[in-house]
Design a protein that fits this description.
The chain is of the alpha/beta class and 233 residues long. The protein has a 7-stranded mixed sheet. Helix 4 links the parallel strand 2 and strand 3. The protein starts with 6 loop residues before the first helix and ends in a 41-residue tail after the last strand.
């Protein structure tokens, strides 16, 4: 599907159109990740919207690639970056994450804080440099109680996304958000190790006992009205 008529592009362009005021507040996952030790290298912010996280990373001197399906959101971010004198550090990229290809082992930090797709998660993980961080947030299946129109395939199953990490990642932190409107979410921070990890299938799972699920469902839902870039939340 071309971007021109993509329903997610149209919906999010409508949301971020005239009259919308962006807060540009950095996401908590981004703030924590940037406070930890990172190797040299750029940052990728996926399904970024008018991202305060991208601005925070640029303020720290990082080159940032900010990706979104909405050029309206990217325009807001680009304008704010230039207003702050950060235009040379943030590159906006208009793309559908479902068709996105990232360079392998390239980014010091990859962020995605409001979107879930297993294939996109795999693409993001492979693009993290050794010693770099992957930060994620998405709805869990528990959110369906508060948002019954939310597509289950765009919600984290028990144990995800940690259970889907490549073997050379170690989890720094997993935390659950409380039950509130719009629903329960889970956050992950994980680091790609600089030395080879255990062979696939042999990673210790004591921290995740009872929470791991390796089932991958086929995408069969259309985006809910309150969703985002397809799955953006």
């Amino acid at each position: 599907m071309s971007l021109a008529g993509h329903p997610d592009r149209l919906r999010w362009n409508d949301r971020y159109g005239p009259g919308y005021t962006a807060s540009f507040v950095p996401h908590a996952v981004a703030a924590e990740a940037l406070s930890l030790g990172l190797p040299d290298g750029p940052v990728a912010d996926l399904a970024c919207g008018p991202s305060g996280s991208a601005l925070l990373a640029a303020q720290a001197g990082r080159q940032v690639t900010a990706v979104d399906i909405s050029e309206a959101a990217l325009g807001l971010l680009d304008t704010e970056a230039r207003r702050r004198g950060l235009g040379g550090l943030i590159t906006v990229r208009h793309a559908d994450l479902a068709a996105l290809h990232l360079p392998p082992r390239h980014y010091a930090l990859v962020l995605c804080t409001g979107f879930w797709d297993r294939a996109v998660f795999a693409e993001a993980a492979q693009s993290v440099a050794p010693g770099g961080l992957l930060g994620w947030e998405a709805f869990t299946l528990a959110a369906l109680r508060a948002r019954p129109k939310l597509c289950a395939d765009w919600c984290l199953a028990p144990g995800e996304p940690a259970s889907l990490l490549p073997a050379d990642f170690e989890v720094i932190r997993i935390w659950e958000l409380p039950h509130n409107e719009p629903g329960t979410k889970r956050r992950l921070l994980a680091r790609r190790m600089t030395t080879p990890g255990p062979a696939a299938g042999s990673r210790p799972d004591k921290r995740l006992a009872g929470r791991i699920s390796h089932g991958v469902r086929e995408r069969a839902c259309r985006p809910p009205d309150a969703g985002g870039d397809g799955q953006r939340q």
